[in-house]
Amino acid sequence: MSTPHADLSPLRAAQRPDDVAQRPDDAARGPAAPGLSGDPVGAGSDPLGLRARSRRTAAILLVLAALLAVSLLLCVGIGPVPLSPAVSLQVIAHQLGAPVPPVPDPAAQAIVWSVRVPRVLMGAAVGACLAISGAALQAMVRNLLADPYILGVSGGASTGAAAAILLGAGAALGAYAQPALAFAGALAAALTVFVIARSNGRVTSLRLLLSGVAVGYALSALTSLLIFSSDSAEGSRSVMFWMLGSLALGRFDAVLLLAVLAALGGTAVLTARAPLLDALAAGDDVAHALGLSPDRTRIGMLVIVSLCTAAAVAGAGAIGFVGLVIPHLARRLVGPGHRAALPASALLGAGFLVWADVLARLAMAPRELPIGVITAAVGAPFLLVLIRRMRHDGG
């Protein structure tokens, strides 16, 4: 891309006078055509820095993916029985059919493959689901404080899971009863929030947030009522698991499969629809100018977010603040464009929750802290920082 000569006057002033005298007709020629001036245009030209920015973003995503892979391997070996990364890698490779011998210790084999690997995979999948859901919701409502927990979606999923545990609802679905009802509850909560927040055909951020708080409190009361009216002490303890959050029940089962599929599929689908999120983040007027229906687009996005949140809650309970903190960190690394911010959020969210689970297991060993305590300890100060920044910016 060539540049008009008039725009280069500051540079020409620094040249020797005889350089200017040699080209007296430059000013009369006007803007130079691409490739006809002496400017270094061509295959290597990148005047706006777009190629350099793309390479930098790709490098950051590759580094995040590598760090996540290393984190998964390290976290598999951390626990009451410490195991080296080499042992963990050997067990995993053997179980996946690689031509490596099994480890000599059968106990180590069982600990790694039956307990820690599914727990770590569940943590990575749940963290990715919550992070991309938060990133999408923040764009949809144009509010920095939006996440599945604040908007009541997690509460809806928890209520659905509680109904499956305490009332036996959806028993015909077998192993898929809890995630299916969690998804139904999340979707119902999301649509309820959307309907309440809609006014004169528009959905404002303030109304959406206030509606989410109201629906969240109502669902919390309903979940508490289900617990109080239940005669099963074991069932009540299981529901408390959903409300506090934990990865202790991670196993190779349908719930883990659904969480992994939701994380991978949700990231892929939302990334493919990144231009729509960019348009919503720019405002409804921009979306209309691009031929989009903001309300219809938001509903479609809410379905995807509800599925991801439902899968996360079905696997680990209601874990707050992950969807609030991680998207902001991702945007600081790769910029505000959702084509890069969503994969970065997924990778950061997966790594963050895996290490949060390690801290939850080790902070008060041999007792295990609910993982929601760790995420809240990080998310609450971050929320205060956001509020302070909004006040300084006049928001």
Describe it.
Its main location: membrane. Keywords: Cell membrane, Membrane, Transmembrane, Transmembrane helix, Transport. Helix content is 70%, strand content 1%. It has 395 residues and is mostly helical. The chain has a domain at 133-321: ABC transporter involved in vitamin B12 uptake, BtuC. It is globular. The model is unreliable at 1-43 (pLDDT under 50).
Key terms:
single chain, 395 residues, mainly alpha, ABC transporter involved in vitamin B12 uptake, BtuC, two-stranded antiparallel ribbon, 17 helices, 2 strands, 1% strand, globular
CATH architecture of the domain at 133-321: Orthogonal Bundle
CATH class annotation of the domain at 133-321: Mainly Alpha
Mean pLDDT: 82
Helix/strand-derived class? mainly alpha
Q: How many E strands?
A: 2
Helical element count? 17
* N/C terminus separation: 39 Å
Spell out the CATH superfamily of the domain at 133-321. ABC transporter involved in vitamin B12 uptake, BtuC
String of helices and strands = HHHHHHHHEEHHHHHHHHH
Q: Point out poorly predicted stretches.
A: 1-43
Q: What form results from the Cα inertia axes?
A: globular
CA gyration radius, whole angstroms: 26 Å
Q: Percentage of helical residues?
A: over 70%
Stated plainly, the CATH topology of the domain at 133-321 is called ABC transporter involved in vitamin B12 uptake, BtuC
Q: Going across the biggest sheet, name each strand in turn.
A: 1-2
Largest sheet entry: 2 strands, antiparallel
- Report the sheet-strand fraction: under 5%
Pfam families: FecCD
GO biological process, one term: siderophore-iron import into cell
Biased composition (Basic and acidic residues): 15-28
Main location: membrane
